[in-house]
Design a protein that fits this description.
With 337 residues, the chain is of the alpha/beta class. 46% of the residues lie in helices and 17% in strands. The chain folds into 2 domains: 190 residues, 3-Layer(aba) Sandwich (D-Maltodextrin-Binding Protein, domain 2), CATH 3.40.190; 127 residues, Periplasmic binding protein-like II (D-Maltodextrin-Binding Protein, domain 2, 3-Layer(aba) Sandwich), CATH 3.40.190.10. β1, α2 and β2 form a beta-alpha-beta unit. The longest helix has 27 residues.
């Protein structure tokens, strides 16, 4: 014991010194630096808001307290930014991206234009899982899925490949609804405006986005939520879950691929190849930021729930889509233009 104890203490001291050296190295690197935080959609929606909220608070918890600048890099429903983050952005820890949560599914089904491997991103974390909904404007008179099977409803979507398209198209295929898709809206804001103007009468959107961007529509019952996918929100009444409606096991596999983004929420990631001590520091900073009273106050004001999703959980959700059966991925592929 007299021999082992000094050896144990020496090993512990060495480990502590090594950890301190790594922490000092991260602090030295980030001191005076700028981190560029990217999002692949236009301003005005929930993705953009969450990016800017995180950019405002995250630097306080990163060693060296770097400045963080939020930037929009639009194109192909977030794919342009995701490709840039993966292939072009410096691999030194000065770039972080808020990835569209449907992009791992795009990779899984073999979408043209994917130049990333979602399994190789350095996932950081997400504020909360996502609950997807299908909503219809009150003037249609459609208040439930059964009515949506009888009447054609014009639905708008952002781009030509994301969840705002694939969700209603999947409902048409698996449940027999009659959504007629109008593509090409550049973001959530223009799409909401199109609903107000009567250009379209329905759209997919997350429940948190409705509550953050159009809470009066929810309160005034301007929209009817026909179905939701993901964990049931306590404040969403009446609408059935997609899991309740889809009974066939093979159909459920297809649903799991298309809605894999539920588990990702609004996920932050860094490029592959970033030194792991810097990745670990950003992950730790993100987790600490979510506990910050000022951050939580702003999130609460925007009606954003905080149910942290870890980096490990993000990777698992992404792999769930990527590693699905070829048969299920082939079936899901047809929902993508």
């Amino acid at each position: 014991m007299s021999i082992l104890k000094p050896l144990y203490l020496a090993a512990a001291l060495s480990a502590a010194l090594s950890s301190a050296v790594r922490a000092d190295a991260v602090e030295d690197f980030y001191k005076g630096k700028t981190i560029y935080a990217l999002v692949g959609v236009s301003p005005g929606g929930e993705y953009d808001f969450q990016l800017r909220l995180v950019a405002k608070h995250l630097g306080a918890y990163i060693p060296g307290h770097p400045n963080i600048v939020a930037q929009n890099m639009t194109g192909a429903t977030g794919m342009v930014m995701a490709n840039y983050l993966y292939k072009v952005a410096p691999k030194d820890g000065t770039y972080i991206g808020l990835i569209q949560n449907g992009l791992p599914t795009s990779q899984a089904v073999g979408m043209e234009g994917v130049q990333f491997d979602a399994s190789k991103y350095n996932w950081i974390g997400s504020i909360a899982p996502t609950v997807e909904t299908m909503a219809v404007w009150k003037s249609t008179g459609v208040t439930n899925i059964e009515q949506a099977k009888q009447a054609e409803v014009i639905a708008g979507c952002v781009g030509s490949s994301g969840i705002t398209l694939t969700f209603p198209v999947m409902l048409n295929d698996l449940l027999g609804t009659k959504f007629k898709m109008v593509m090409g809206y550049t973001g959530s804001g223009p799409l909401n405006l199109a609903m107000e103007r009567g250009e379209v009468s329905a759209r997919n959107n997350s429940w948190s986005s409705w509550n953050a961007s159009k809470p009066e529509w929810v309160t005034n019952k301007d929209i009817n939520i026909l179905v939701y996918s993901g964990p049931k929100p306590a404040d969403l009444k009446g609408a059935p879950s997609l899991d309740e409606l889809i009974k066939d096991p093979e159909d459920r596999q297809v649903v799991d691929i298309v809605t894999a983004g539920n588990g990702l929420g609004h996920p932050f990631a860094m490029p592959p190849g970033v030194p792991q001590d810097r990745v670990a520091a950003i992950r730790k900073a993100f987790a600490e930021m979510l506990k910050d009273p000022a951050f939580r106050k702003e999130a609460e004001a925007a009606k954003i729930e905080i149910e942290p999703v870890s980096a490990e959980a993000l990777e698992k959700a992404a792999l769930g889509a990527i590693n699905a059966s070829d048969k299920a991925k082939l079936r899901a592929r047809k929902y993508f233009q």
